[in-house]
Task: inverse folding
């Protein structure tokens, strides 16, 4: 995605709001898109609106929800309930939402995807797909995406940004007496995806001298990196399934590789305008 500026936000606090500590980005956070869902022990904090900033193009639905989430976390909210969602149309090319911000118990119940973070390790509860009639002990559905955008209105500064996701609703886990071992195995799958998101950014930086080349080459680079990622995931399973002792080798390898690409841990790189 190539954008000029971000959507605008408006936050209206509840008159009787309790004071909550700001949440860190990787803490469990629920996004509920159906207002009919029941939540126990909920405390209404605020209403947040994400709308067209006038020149906004970096405003796909996932981005808009992420903006609302960030605003909610600033005031201690750990859940949003989307009350209104306007899709792009004649009046705006952006997704626009209005949502209520809550503090609730067990927000992880409503998580559909988890952003990779070194301090947010996967738990059994994060795997929400049915494990019935599945052939493996667990499957991790993870991926990464990217966008290209300018920084600020009419800015000549550009960035390429990547995000690594774990999909809760597509990942399953069969509980056995090997849960800890299985969870460690699946975490490495997620970590490998994060590694290749960083490799993708490094490749963009080395192959694209300016924004025009980044726009021209990014999709092809993405396809190559995704293919390499899948090959690595398959190689990992192929080695570890018949010999669980090799799990330690892969654990050491992924830690070293993530450290090797630590300069891309923010998953944001700058791109020259010319």
Result:
């Amino acid at each position: 995605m190539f954008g000029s500026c971000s959507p605008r936000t408006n936050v209206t606090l509840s008159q009787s709001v309790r004071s909550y500590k700001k949440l860190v980005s990787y803490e469990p956070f629920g996004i509920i898109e159906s207002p009919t869902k029941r939540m126990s022990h909920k405390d209404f904090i605020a209403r947040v609106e994400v709308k067209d900033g006038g020149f906004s193009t970096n405003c796909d639905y996932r981005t808009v929800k992420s903006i609302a989430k960030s605003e909610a976390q600033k005031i201690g909210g750990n859940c949003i309930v989307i009350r209104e969602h306007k899709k792009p149309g004649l009046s705006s090319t952006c997704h626009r939402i209005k949502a209520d911000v809550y503090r609730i118990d067990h927000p992880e119940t409503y998580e559909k995807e988890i952003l990779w973070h070194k301090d947010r390790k996967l738990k059994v509860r994060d795997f929400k797909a049915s494990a019935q009639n599945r052939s493996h002990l667990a499957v991790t559905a993870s991926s990464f995406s990217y966008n290209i955008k300018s920084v600020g209105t009419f800015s000549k500064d550009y960035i390429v940004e990547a995000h690594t996701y774990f999909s809760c609703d597509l990942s399953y886990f069969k509980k056995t007496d090997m849960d800890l071992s299985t969870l460690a195995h699946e975490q490495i799958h997620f970590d490998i995806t994060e590694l290749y998101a960083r490799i993708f950014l490094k490749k963009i930086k080395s192959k694209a001298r300016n924004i025009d080349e980044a726009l021209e080459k990014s999709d092809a680079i993405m396809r190559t990196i995704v293919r390499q990622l899948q090959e690595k995931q398959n190689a990992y399973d192929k080695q570890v399934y018949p010999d669980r002792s090799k799990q330690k080798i892969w654990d050491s390898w992924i830690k070293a590789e993530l450290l090797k690409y630590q300069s891309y841990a923010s998953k944001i790189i700058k791109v020259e305008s010319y």
